[in-house]
Amino acid sequence: MIKQLSDTIKNFDLKIKKIMNYGLYFSLAVSVLGTLFLIYYISFHPSTFIYYIGLKIIWLSISFAVSFFASAFAFDRIKKDLA
User: Fold this and answer.
1) How far apart are CA 59 and CA 37, in angstroms?
2) By C-alpha distance, which of 83, 64, 62 is closest to 19?
């Protein structure tokens, strides 16, 4: 199963792979922002509001990563079925 998944990712169209990589980098940047909120919460200001903002931003970054990954699979499949 893992080998099949890695083979599928290797055979992505170049444009789809590029968009997926940019999306994953964007997700990483959002995750770093959420981590900075959580570090601020731990270090300076113990407010539950800041804690929940940090958690929601981390959750948002995970959602972005999964969305870009699933979209890449879907678009690759559609593109190969139409060709």
Assistant:
1) 13
2) 64
Task: Judge whether residue 70 has pLDDT over 90.
Answer: yes
Burial class (CB in 10 A: 0-12, 13-18, 19+), 55: middle
pLDDT per position as a tens digit, 6-40: 888 888 889 999 999 999 999 999 999 999 999 99
From residue 15, give the alpha-carbon distance in Å to each of 33, 61, 67: 27, 22, 17
37 near 61, Cβ under 8 Å?
A: no
Distance between CA atoms of 39 and 74, rounded to whole angstroms?
A: 36
Burial class (CB in 10 A: 0-12, 13-18, 19+), 46: exposed
- Stated pTM of the model: 0.85
